[in-house]
Amino acid sequence: YVTKPFSPQELILRMQAVLRRCYPAEPETVHLENATLDLANADVLRRDTGEHLTLTVKERAILDTLARNANRIVTTDALCEAAWGDSFGYAQSLMTHVRRIREKIEKDPSQPQSLVTAKGLGYKLNVLKDR
Questions:
Q1: SS3 126
Q2: Phi and psi dihedrals of 47, rounded to 5?
């Protein structure tokens, strides 16, 4: 409830406060089988080599969408929408980006454990519970 008169800035601040309470912040750190993702800094820490790798803007958008839907299948259309704002004609580019992500997070990108393909549906990010 906001009493009149009110400034538009006050209304925006109150709405943001309500949304923060209703929709908690997304996870900034995601633990995978072989890597830890720091989505806030677009950074990957590989456990096997100890190296830090930087994510591109598209890779971060794809991983952010997958992390918000951890351990669930996300359709290719939803991932294209998250990365490009449109789902038409980006499926091949999405496959290329997924391959590059796998090279950064997987021990063996050809046998993925964390970012798996759900044939004909999309992709699933297997996230470890708590570390």
A1: coil
A2: -75, -35
Torsional sign, CA 45, 47, 115, 90: positive
Residue 70, both tokens: 């951890």
- CATH code at 28-125: 1.10.10.10
CA distance 13 to 58: 30
Residue 77 — φ and ψ, nearest 5°? -60, -45
- Tokens standing for residue 5: 């008169």
pTM, to two decimals: 0.77
**pLDDT tens sequence across 48-106:** 888 999 999 999 999 999 998 989 999 999 999 999 988 788 889 999 999 999 999 99
Structure tokens at 79: 């991932």
Judged by DSSP in three states, 28 sits in coil
Beta-carbon neighbour count of residue 106 at 10 Å?
Answer: 21
